[in-house]
């Protein structure tokens, strides 16, 4: 393979040039390893990764080594790269079939073989040889194998992926059930071994952290200044009937299953309303849901217009791990939210959203909010107040300085 500068896009600042906003006294540089370029912050993992990286870059020189699975991510905007001391981006091109064969031959999880890349290893070696790195931060379990030795090592698992695959396996049949159960078992062992070897193991919620020995929560936050109903954004025209909105990455299995079940089981129980599925990369099965009462937008430039137009925002996920950004965003936009128990589990909402245990309960909660606009507006105001008080990014990331070992 080519050297890192050729295999990925690499850009370095001079070693003696301070990064933007670096605080005097920081103990050393930070190597940030990401399974996906955390920019633009337009999906759950990218949002968390971006805000953590921005927090660190304001306090130390940060060197990013990341995969890009979208061609648009191979050359991030200067608004992102200018806060980094250096960045190396490696396109992720390994075919799934090849990763599967490697997983079976090596006895490793597919989640790891899919991200096994010599170019990333060389990039990490290069950074460690040329920079004064004192802490390496791996974002998502797939990046754990790239953590270098002899520095402080922080593993941000985000979610316990083993639990997710175990849930998938419980619903699967035949060979797929075996494959998913294998992935869950191998990942669980991997997560435990990594947690035992690093200095800190972080998860998006206390519930997730409890699944791995030594795990500690570092919760997601929200940019309540951006997700603000008073901010400037392009409005979305009301459809003439009540609008129910779901947002998310629409090739992500839990999102696909959620909207499919909602259209099938909940929509028939509701009064006349329009359901908008808002998010990039809708699968063919999602596009097949389009009908008189269902709209599938595909990728939108700014989700805030859709949230602001919503009479109710729903999060009917049957499988959800950690804190759902989509729920925090809707709450910050002062919208009334109806969420499944799984989607609400990691959020300390204080009663500022409605929780529904099944499709019938979700239909009842939505119908009640559509029928009582004053109650819906009050719930939305309470939701925004709760988010501001509980989920501001600065407060959520305050423990990170000590975890990473940055000087006060």
What would your notes on this structure say?
- By secondary structure, this protein is α/β, with parallel strands linked by helices.
- It has two domains: 4-221 and 393-404, Glycogen Phosphorylase B (Rossmann fold), CATH 3.40.50; 243-390, 3-Layer(aba) Sandwich (Rossmann fold).
- Helix content is 40%, strand content 17%.
- An eight-stranded mixed beta sheet has the order 1-4-3-2-5-6-7-8, sandwiched between helices.
- The longest helix has 24 residues, at 174-197.
- It is globular, with a radius of gyration of 22 Å.
- 47% of the residues are buried.
- Residues 1-26 have low confidence and may be disordered.
- This is Glycosyl transferase family 1.
- GO terms for molecular function: glycosyltransferase activity.
- Keywords: Transferase.
- It comes from Sphingomonas ginsenosidimutans.
List the helices and strands and how they pair.
Layout: H1 4-7, E1 9-12, E2 29-34, H2 44-57, E3 62-68, H3 78-81, E4 86-91, H4 96-106, H5 110-113, H6 118-130, E5 133-139, E6 152-158, H7 161-171, H8 174-197, E7 200-203, H9 206-209, E8 215-217, E9 243-247, H10 253-266, E10 274-278, H11 284-287, E11 294-298, H12 304-309, E12 312-315, H13 325-332, E13 337-340, H14 341-344, E14 354-356, H15 359-371, H16 373-390, H17 393-396, H18 400-404
Helix pairs in contact: 7-8, 10-15, 13-16
